[in-house]
Structure formats: structure tokens, C-alpha cells
Design a protein that fits this description.
Low-confidence stretches: none
Shape: globular
Number of helices: 6
Number of strands: 2
Radius of gyration: 17 Å
């Protein structure tokens, strides 16, 4: 089992063991995207550790894997299943991304980058609404977001 599946399983099990009585959503694909974006933004020993964790030899493998995932999610038409995902990076307003890193995650990962005030509840609550309109599957219940 790869790391993203392990994370998803752990979150679901923790929720069930803690008596969570609500719907839970977890996305191994999202965890993979997060780790790939983190790898791209890292350097030195941190980069080496993340590459080892992701079981990649170099950053080109990281980029190549994600490009394959992006290709799979393109609508094929007909009766093919529609797979959609949304990448977003929210940064506390007190911090900023390096321009080169922001350009890579916006262009390569199609990620929406926003600075927010994490201390304001109204902005934190809006996070779950950002993907609305980006996910193309007509079967998504509009009350999900």
C-alpha cells in the first residue's frame, strides 16, 4: 500500500474509532499531489528525504508521475467515467511563496494559490467552497461544498 492510501486509511480508521458520526471524505490522489508539490518546493536533505518517501529517484519522476495522473483525469467522452480533482494552496497571509515555486504549482499542478487570514473564521470556513465550480462531474451533490 502506498503512502497516500495509508494516510487515507488511517484518517478513516481514526474517525471511526473516535466515534465520528458523520460522512468522511479522504482522497489519496490529493495526498499524492500535496507530497509532489512539497517535493518540488524542497531542496537539499529535505528534498532527498521526500524523494525517498515517494520512492522517486529525482524531480523529473515526480513531475512525470503527476502529468500521468493529470492525463487520466481528462474527460474521455462517451460512457467513460469522469474523474475530477481540484488543487488549492492556501497560505497564511503572514507568509508568501517564492515566485518560482508559485509559478510551478500554478502551471504544472493547476493549483489555485490564495493568501488568507487563518485567524478569521469566515475565511477558514470559505476553504471548503473554493473547489465549487472547478469539479466537472455532474454527479457531485451541490450541497457537498
Amino acid at each position: 500500500m502506498d503512502f497516500s492510501s495509508k494516510v487515507a486509511s488511517k484518517l478513516l480508521l481514526d474517525g471511526l474509532e473516535n466515534g465520528e458520526n458523520k460522512n468522511m471524505l479522504t482522497s489519496p490522489l490529493s495526498y499524492n499531489a500535496i507530497m509532489n508539490m512539497t517535493a518540488i518546493g524542497s531542496s537539499g536533505a529535505t528534498s532527498d528525504q521526500i524523494l525517498e518517501f515517494l520512492q522517486h529517484k529525482n524531480m523529473e519522476e515526480v513531475k512525470s508521475e503527476f502529468l500521468k495522473l493529470k492525463e487520466i483525469t481528462k474527460t474521455k467522452g462517451g460512457d467513460a467515467p469522469v474523474i475530477s480533482f481540484f488543487n488549492g494552496v492556501w497560505i497564511n497571509k503572514e507568509y508568501c511563496l517564492k515566485n518560482t515555486f508559485q509559478e510551478v504549482i500554478e502551471r504544472h499542478y493547476n493549483a489555485l494559490v490564495r493568501n488568507i487570514d487563518c485567524k478569521k473564521d469566515d475565511q477558514a470556513c470559505q476553504l471548503s467552497h473554493y473547489p465549487s465550480g472547478f469539479i466537472e462531474s455532474p454527479s457531485v451533490d451541490p450541497t457537498t461544498f
